[in-house]
């Protein structure tokens, strides 16, 4: 920040909110990589709407999201979801974020030597509920897919 400039209350609130949303994005990636399905409600709203770009279209609800994650990620070994080029825009108790994602999925069992890599973008809509930011809508667009999709049961 330039010397002599001050941050007013609304600017500070915006910075804090953007930081909180960015932290939640990272938390979501780590929950996926840790397969901590029981903790998804700390990042995703119960009434979340999502499209993971897999041809299933728009789906609804945290239980369905949990099932979707488990169906694919429980089939593979280690995963790592890396996020970058994150842009967060806050408008009161709503926010949007755009983040590039690179996700590596290692095979398991007979597929232990295989990997499946996905590169794309998460576009999320957030709502502040009871003092915390939750994803209320996630849309995923995949740009490239490489490797063996059987790693994810595809």
From TrEMBL:
Residues 14-139 form the SnoaL-like domain. Pfam families: SnoaL_4. CDD domains: NTF2_like. This is Unannotated protein. It comes from freshwater metagenome.
């Amino acid at each position: 920040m330039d010397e002599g400039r001050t941050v007013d209350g609304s600017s500070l609130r915006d910075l804090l909110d953007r930081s909180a949303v960015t932290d939640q994005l990272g938390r979501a990636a780590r929950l996926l990589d840790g397969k901590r399905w029981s903790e998804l409600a700390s990042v995703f709203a119960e009434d979340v709407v999502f499209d993971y770009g897999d041809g299933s279209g728009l789906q609804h609800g945290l239980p369905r999201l949990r099932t979707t994650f488990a169906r694919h990620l429980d089939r593979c070994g280690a995963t790592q979801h890396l996020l970058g080029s994150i842009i967060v825009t806050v408008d009161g108790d709503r926010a949007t974020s755009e983040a590039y994602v690179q996700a590596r999925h290692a095979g398991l069992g007979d597929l232990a030597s295989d990997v499946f890599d996905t590169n794309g973008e998460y576009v999320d809509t957030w709502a502040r509920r009871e003092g915390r930011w939750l994803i209320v809508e996630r849309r995923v667009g995949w740009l490239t897919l490489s490797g063996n999709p059987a790693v994810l049961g595809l």
